[in-house]
Amino acid sequence: MKLYNLFFLLFCANVSFAQNTTAKIEKVKADGLHKIVLPTNVRSASNDDLSDFRILDSKGNEVPYFVNKNLEPISDANYKEYKIISRSEIPKKQSTLIFENSDKTINQVALTIANYEGEKTFTISGSNDQKEWFGISNNNYLSDLNASDATSVSKTINFPLTNYNYIKINLDDKKSLPIRIISIGNFNFKTIATSFLPVNYNKKTITELKSDKKTLLHFEFEKAINIENIKFQISNPKLFKRYAKIYRNETRKVKHKTENYHAFMANFELSSDSKNTFTLAGIKEKDFYIEIENQDNQPLTIDNIQFFQYPVSIIADLKANENYTIKTGNSNATLPVYDIENFKNNIPNNLPTATISEIKFAEKAVENNSPKSFWQQPWFMWVCISLGAIAILYFASSLVKDLNKK
User: Fold this and answer.
1) Could you give the CA distance from residue 36 to residue 354 in angstroms, rounded to a whole number?
2) What is the pLDDT of residues 340-353, one digit of tens each?
3) Are residues 138 and 98 part of one domain?
4) Nearest to 301, CA basis, from 245, 242, 243, 235
5) In terms of pTM, does the model score above 0.90?
6) Are strands 356-361 and 21-25 parallel, antiparallel or unpaired?
C-alpha cells in the first residue's frame, strides 16, 4: 500500500505541474452550441495543436469540442423573403403569382415549394406598375420537386438581371395539376474577412547600427506567444525597398566554449509599393529581433509595428448557467477524440459566442544567478533519483517476497 501511495503522489504531482494554465467560461444564457474565441495568451500557453486543451463542467466531466480555425474569408447568406402581391389561377391552363421586388436589381429568386411529384414549365415577366408587363425569361423548367425528408423543397431560378418593381411568374397547368408556392425570397451573400487578433508586446527597443548600416528592433513579451502576422506602418521616405529578417539570440558550445549566434526565423522585404503586411510561420517567442538593412540610405521612419494571431475558436455544446473550467498547458497531453468533430461541416457560422475570463498562469520560479549549493546541482538530483529508484525496487521486491510466503 505504501508503494501504491508513492506512485499516486508522484502521478498527482506530475498532473498538477503539467496543467499550468486555467480559466473560466462566463455563463451562457441558453443551451446549445457556442463559439469560444481563444484569447492570444491562452492559445500561446497551449500546445500548437491544442491537444492539451480541455473544458470541464462543474462535475469535472470533459465537454466535447472541435477546433475552428478561421484562416480564410467566409461567406454568410441571409434569406430575405419577398412580399407576394397576388395569386391567381385559370383551371387547367395556368397559375400566376406576382411578388414585389424590394431590391434594386435581382437575377434570381428562391422558391419554397410544397412537395410535388412532377415537373413544371414557367415564364417570367416584369412590370413597374402592374399594368404593362414585359418579358424577362421564357420556357423555364422546374423538376425534382419532391423531398424525402421534408414536406417542401427550395428551388433557385435564375433569369437576366432586372430592376422591375414587380415580377410575375406564370406556371403552365395545361398538362399537370397546379403546385403550391409557399414563399419567394432571395439569399444575400456577403464575404466576412478574417479578423486578426492583436498581440501586444511589453517593450520595444530601436537601435541604429550606423557602422553596420542597419536598424535593429528588439521586441519583448510577457510570455512566449504565437505570432502569425506582422504589419509595418512607414511614413518616410516615400520610396524605399529594404531587406529585413527576424531572429532570436541563442547560445551553443563550440570546442568547449559557449558562443552566441543568431537563430534565423523569417525574412521579408519592406517596400513602398506594398502594404508591408507579412505572414509568419512557426514563431512562438518571448523576445526576438528584427534587423533592417539600410545600406547607404537613411533609416526608415517606422510609425508603428503591429503583431497578430489568426483567430482560433472552440465550438462546444454548453448549458445555460453551468460553471465551466478550462485547463491547458500539459505538453505531454494527447489530442482528444470527440464525436462532435464528425459534424463540424453541418454547423452554421453564426453561433452565439461565449467568453473566456479569469485566466491564471502558473507562477514560475525566479531565476537566481548566485552560486548554487551542492543540493541544487544536476548530479545531486540524479543521485536522488537513483536512490528513489532503489527504494522502489526494494519495496517491490519485499512485496513480492511477502506474497510468495503467503
Assistant:
1) 5
2) 999 988 888 778 99
3) yes
4) 235
5) no
6) antiparallel
